[in-house]
Fold this protein.
Amino acid sequence: MPFIDIPESVRYLISRLQQNGYRAYAVGGCVRDSLLQKTPDDWDICTSALPQQTLDTLQMPNIIENGLRHGTVTIRYQGQNYEITTFRTDGAYVDNRRPSSVTFVADVKEDLLRRDFTINALAYNDQEGLIDYFNGREDLQQGIIRCVGNADERFQEDGLRIMRALRFASRFGFHIASDTAAAIHRNAELLKNISAERIHSELDKLLIGQNAEAVLSEFSDVLAVVIPEITPMIGFDQRNPHHAFDVWTHTVKAVANTPPERILRLAALFHDIGKPSAFTLDEKGVGHFKRHAFLGEEITHTVLRRLRYDNRTIAQVSQLVLLHDDHPSLKNKSVRRFLSKTGENLWRELLQLQKADFNAKGVPVTEEAAAYFDKLYALCVEEASSQTAYTLKRLAVNGKDLIALGIKDGMLIGQILSELLECVIEGTLTNEREILLEKAREIAARGR
Ligand code: ATP
Ligand code: MG
């Protein structure tokens, strides 16, 4: 019998319910993660006690009222929240997402039957050990995502499960069982009924998973339901000697080449989304993609907004897409200009994206080209840690200094500051206060 190390607080809650004659288990993700030797984020409990009975037994406040109707009590104990849900079956599903009603049941097996995948349909307590009606433990050991019951029906009940299957496969490096995978492809359109917020939160987790490459390749049709803009990328032949792969295959490899961080992986996913519409063929039959980064930025913006990403994410990812093909020469001046576009915060990500992109082209690279990114990185570090300026913020003078010189016109102040920055970036002036003030006076006099 496997031993799962339940935290003391969870053990206490379970035993209080048991002492009052109810059955209670740790259930779902926490059992799965424990068997995988991963520390669970949270511990959910399921019980035969009705919600009010749970509250009466534990004598702890229910801190989130609206779960009660679905049988969930959220109590706070020793600084942590715990969801305690009455065993239930789900009534008929409306809108492929929510059950129209839930029915409380006495048997844990019925509760496990409504859960999405065998690896999530596990329950445990110290007295009875692992409750595993659907071979979830074996699927965990073999690394398989498999629906509980009929896969088509389970996805039709709740389309979000399609994204959840991809997310778990990516996160754990698991394989999706063939009947479950076939049902995913067949039912992918159901994702159209799922809210943008839920889609994007699953997409984020999918992208940062260890197995994102395989999942994105195998399920590109599914992703294309939630992001139709990727459809032209799939199989798009670049007809260019610098690219061995079609746009989608290259994209997936670029995603896999970036460190597993949300912003970077989103940027990698979208970096070439402008390519199909930018494609031109020259007289030699070679493909070109002029301005694809600009078009890509626009498409990225549209997609991320539709998926209701927050403004900061939209701005950062779009900016990375816009600049992904911007390769400065290895001179300080060019590097400062490059940094002036990314600002203080995004240049490391941009370099990681560019390197990932470069290494995903599938063609042999020269040593010089391979060394480029390391040299560029070193130059960026040098510039970023020097006294020089590539943003207005780093300039040794600011608006107030110019006002102190007697320059009152706001527009002129703005113009002078950008001209000073331009000179510092170009290297014609050093970023020192006195030098810049002198130049400011000169420009102001010229302006009068
Ligand atoms: P995570 O590590 O992301 O929290 P999780 O499996 O715990 O993964 P939750 O969304 O917290 O996911 O759900 C807890 C449990 O509830 C799942 O393990 C599963 O048993 C069940 N569950 C969650 N969402 C669904 C769903 N859409 N359909 C069926 N069962 C679900
Ligand atoms: Mg969970």
Remarks:
- The chain has 21 helices and 14 strands.
